[in-house]
Each structure stands twice: as structure tokens, then as C-alpha cells.
TrEMBL record:
<dbReference type="GO" id="GO:0071617">
    <property type="term" value="F:lysophospholipid acyltransferase activity"/>
</dbReference>
<dbReference type="GO" id="GO:0036151">
    <property type="term" value="P:phosphatidylcholine acyl-chain remodeling"/>
</dbReference>
<dbReference type="GO" id="GO:0044233">
    <property type="term" value="C:mitochondria-associated endoplasmic reticulum membrane contact site"/>
</dbReference>
<dbReference type="GO" id="GO:0008374">
    <property type="term" value="F:O-acyltransferase activity"/>
</dbReference>
<dbReference type="GO" id="GO:0006661">
    <property type="term" value="P:phosphatidylinositol biosynthetic process"/>
</dbReference>
<feature type="transmembrane region" description="Helical">
    <location>
        <begin position="76"/>
        <end position="94"/>
    </location>
</feature>
<feature type="region of interest" description="Disordered">
    <location>
        <begin position="450"/>
        <end position="472"/>
    </location>
</feature>
<keyword id="KW-0012">Acyltransferase</keyword>
<comment type="pathway">
    <text>Lipid metabolism; phospholipid metabolism.</text>
</comment>
<feature type="transmembrane region" description="Helical">
    <location>
        <begin position="34"/>
        <end position="64"/>
    </location>
</feature>
<feature type="transmembrane region" description="Helical">
    <location>
        <begin position="425"/>
        <end position="447"/>
    </location>
</feature>
<dbReference type="GO" id="GO:0021591">
    <property type="term" value="P:ventricular system development"/>
</dbReference>
<keyword id="KW-0256">Endoplasmic reticulum</keyword>
<keyword id="KW-0472">Membrane</keyword>
<keyword id="KW-0812">Transmembrane</keyword>
<comment type="pathway">
    <text>Phospholipid metabolism.</text>
</comment>
<dbReference type="InterPro" id="IPR004299">
    <property type="entry name" value="MBOAT_fam"/>
</dbReference>
Length: 472
């Protein structure tokens, strides 16, 4: 592990006891205490580069104040433009930010764009209310008022997920501050249930990254190995990549759970990133609060089992970095300038690659996903429904195997980063996934397969197991 990785791990681990301290605190202490801790962590790890986050916050707040009815698009343009400036600092002869500054800036971009969207929704709702002449009751997910500058700063620098996620909306943050009877919200048991696989994942990461170091792929000697060895190597590389993020995201979720952050009654049917989808009246007494069943789906960032064992490429995206996937679907995919599912997915993947950074490997990897989506969708719609139940089961196993190999292949671009290293590795295995995806797409078209759709059908399998296993 690099020094940066150790720092991330320490930040994640100390957020757990800090969460227990804040859980039962009042709204004021939660707001300003959590912001003070987050700002302290930012100053400690980023130093003077903290100025970048402050400039981004102030710019977004100014746009919200100036154009509240159209601030979402303006905030998206502002924060994404600042990311370009932020990443071009070395080219401009300015000090290069630390990796921690980059992490803070990434999560801050998501939060500020979401905040602007929530404010815009509030203003549009208020205008409709004024035009209709009568007042409606509270709307699910709607803010009570526009946050002040200090409230925006407290949300932006809240220590929860400040470097690793999960992403959360301002409405989720407000619900935590105003949580009725926080002592009745369970924390310890859900935390232990969530945390138990993390040590195993950590050991598997250390073992796999030691036995199959990524740096070997950059050496000339690697390309003297036989083709089967080169093909196999991407499997443990992606395995180590997954284990690393499983540990980080589980630890980040545990920090939220310790603070009771993102806890909602199960009846609210909360979604990762978005929060409740059904209105639930707040409990009127500690006894009623204690009688409710809660979950932490709002801050759930990874479904490890489904990531590994879902069948399709598109489902693999849904279970990975789940709060960010919700953000991409809500603010990028839905507003894409295309109607086709594959083209909208390509647009989303392009902006996702840009959000991650300017390294060519990100773009090579992310822009391979739409090809895989088109291929699997066409062939599945053409053939799977014609098979017997046994044939469909065999299909799903083959589909799952190819899905995992596609992600192994794309992961190499994500971790090698440079165009030269990525294309050198892919060329050494004859661009096998690209060629296979093109062949499958061609076969699907020849057999009359329909265009991929985001809607599930009863015949489409989403997991190799009859029942999804969960840590809870």
C-alpha cells in the first residue's frame, strides 16, 4: 500500500468513532462539528490546495443566488469547467494539487451540482404554487428553503464521505441534522453486519496485489510471456482492484452508519444516493422511533455480491459505486442530448471518464462500455427468450463469464492510465473483448435483436443465484 492509501484508510477508520460521537448530538453541533472535522481533514491532507474547494463552493453559491431557476445547468458547467482548470495546473506552471485534493474536488463537484438541482426544484415548485394560488403539503425530497452560504459550506465540508464517498444530497444531510430521536436509530449492529467482510477483502487485496503487481504489465519482459499468461493476468489485477474498493467503500459506509447518517425507515424504500422514494411521517415519540425498522440504503455504495455475480454488464455498473451511479443517472443520463439508450450511455460514460480525470486510459475503458451494452442487449433480445429454462440458465453462466472478462479487460485501461500502456496490453491479447463485442453485436443484428432497453423483462436474469445474498 502506498502512503496515500494508508492515509485514506486512517481517515476512513477514524470517521467511525467520530460518527458515534456525533450521532446523538443536536442539529447545531452536528452541522458545525461535522464541518469543522471535515475542514480540518481537508486542511491537513490538502494544505493550501484547500483553496480550490473553497473557490468552487463560492462560485456555485453565487450562481444559485443569481439564477435559482436555472442554476443546475450553470453549476454543472461551472464545476466541470473548474475540474479542467484544476487538472491543467501543472501545464500552467502552478503547484500540482495533492491526490487528496483531487478526491475532495471530485466528491464536492457531485454535491454542488446536486445542491443546485435541489434549489432549482424548490424554486420551480414555489412558482407553480404561486401560479396555482394554493399551498401544497410537503413534497418528498424538496428542500424547505435555499441554503445560506454558511449552510452550503457546512454541507460541502461535512466530514462524512469527504474523500471517498458515498455521495449524498443536501436533503439527506438535512434529514440527518434534524433526525428525530437519533438514539432510537440502530448503529452498532448494522455497522458490524456491514463491516465483517472488510478484513477478508483487505487480506485478499494485499495477497493478490503482491502476487500479481500491476507494474509487471509495464515491463518489456511481461510481453515475452505466452498469450494465455497475458490473458489471465488481467483477472487478478481486476480482482485486486475490486477488493481495494470494497474495503474503502465498506469502511466509508460504516462511518455513515456509526453517525446514523442516511438512516431511514424501511417503509421509505430509500435508494442509494437519492434517498426515500415514499413519504414516511416522522415518529412522534422515542418508543415509536424505536419500533421502526431502519436501513442505510441511501448511503450504500457497493453491493459486493451483486457486483461479482450479476449477469449483465449494465447490472455490474448499477451495483458498483452506487451513489455515484445514481448521480450520473439523475443528472447526466436523463439530460443526455440523445434518445438511444446506447448513445445516452456513451454520453454518460464520456462525462464519467472526464469526472475521473484526463488520463486516456479512463476514456478507453469507459467508452468500451457502450459497445458491450449494445452487444449484450442485441444478442440477448434475439436469442435468450427462445431458449428452454435449462438453456437460459446455461446462457446466464456464459454471459456472466464474459461480463467478468469484459470488466477485467476494461479495468486495465483504468489502472494503467496512459494510452501507450493500455493499448500495448490490449494489443498483446489482440483486442479480444473489442473484437468479441463487435462479433456479438453483428450476430445480434443479423438475428433481428432489438435495441437494448433499460427496462427489465421477466425473462432477463440479473443474478446467478435465486436470491440475492446480502450482508445485512
Amino acid at each position: 500500500m502506498s502512503p496515500e492509501e494508508w492515509t485514506y484508510l486512517v481517515v476512513l477508520l477514524i470517521s467511525i468513532p467520530i460518527g458515534f460521537l456525533f450521532k446523538k448530538a443536536g442539529p447545531g453541533l452536528k452541522r458545525w462539528g461535522a464541518a469543522a472535522v471535515g475542514l480540518g481533514l481537508t486542511l491537513f491532507t490538502c494544505g493550501p490546495h484547500t483553496l480550490h474547494s473553497l473557490v468552487t463552493i463560492l462560485g456555485t453559491w453565487a450562481l444559485i443566488q443569481a439564477q435559482p431557476c436555472s442554476c443546475h445547468a450553470l453549476a454543472l458547467a461551472w464545476t466541470f469547467s473548474y475540474l479542467l482548470f484544476f487538472r491543467a495546473l501543472s501545464l500552467l506552471g502552478l503547484p500540482t494539487p495533492t491526490p487528496f485534493t483531487n478526491a475532495v474536488q471530485l466528491l464536492l463537484t457531485l454535491k454542488l451540482v446536486s445542491l443546485a438541482s435541489e434549489v432549482q426544484d424548490l424554486h420551480l415548485a414555489q412558482r407553480k404554487e404561486m401560479a396555482s394560488g394554493f399551498s401544497k403539503g410537503p413534497t418528498l425530497g424538496l428542500l424547505p428553503d435555499v441554503p445560506s452560504l454558511m449552510e452550503t459550506l457546512s454541507y460541502s465540508y461535512c466530514y462524512v464521505g469527504i474523500m471517498t464517498g458515498p455521495f449524498f444530497r443536501y436533503r439527506t444531510y438535512l434529514d440527518w441534522l434534524e433526525q428525530p430521536f437519533p438514539g432510537a436509530v440502530p448503529s452498532l449492529r448494522p455497522l458490524l453486519r456491514r463491516a465483517w467482510p472488510a478484513p477478508l477483502f483487505g487480506l485478499l487485496f494485499l495477497l493478490s496485489s503482491h502476487l500479481f503487481p500491476l507494474e509487471a504489465v509495464r515491463e518489456d519482459a511481461f510481453y515475452a510471456r505466452p498469450l494465455p499468461a497475458r490473458l489471465f493476468y488481467m483477472i487478478p489485477v481486476f480482482f485486486a482492484f475490486r477488493m481495494r474498493f470494497y474495503v474503502a467503500w465498506i469502511a466509508a459506509e460504516c462511518g455513515c452508519i456509526a453517525a446514523g447518517f442516511g438512516a431511514y425507515p424501511v417503509a421509505a424504500k430509500a435508494r442509494a444516493g437519492g434517498g426515500p422514494t415514499l413519504q414516511c411521517p416522522p415518529p412522534s415519540s422515542p418508543e415509536k422511533a424505536a419500533s421502526l425498522e431502519y436501513d442505510y440504503e441511501t448511503i450504500r455504495n457497493i453491493d459486493c455480491y451483486s457486483t461479482d455475480f450479476c449477469v449483465r454488464v449494465r447490472d455490474g455498473m448499477r451495483y458498483w459505486n452506487m451513489t455515484v451511479q445514481w448521480w450520473l443517472a439523475q443528472y447526466i443520463y436523463k439530460n443526455a442530448p440523445f434518445r438511444s439508450y446506447v448513445l445516452r450511455s456513451a454520453w454518460t460514460m464520456l462525462l464519467s471518464a472526464y469526472w475521473h480525470g484526463l488520463h486516456p486510459g479512463y476514456y478507453l475503458s469507459f467508452l468500451t462500455i457502450p459497445l458491450c451494452l449494445a452487444a449484450e442487449g442485441r444478442l440477448e433480445s434475439a436469442l435468450r427468450g427462445r431458449l428452454s429454462p435449462g438453456g437460459q440458465k446455461a446462457w446466464d453462466w456464459v454471459h456472466w463469464f464474459l461480463k467478468m472478462r469484459a470488466y477485467d479487460y476494461m479495468c486495465m485501461g483504468f489502472v494503467l492510465l496512459s494510452m501507450g500502456d493500455t493499448l500495448r496490453y490490449w494489443a498483446s491479447i489482440y483486442f479480444c473483448i473489442h473484437l468479441l463485442a463487435l462479433a456479438v453485436l453483428g450476430l445480434g443484428l443479423a438475428l433481428g435483436g432489438g435495441s437494448p432497453s433499460r427496462r427489465k423483462t421477466a425473462s432477463q436474469a440479473t443474478s446467478l443465484a435465486p436470491e440475492k445474498l446480502r450482508e445485512e
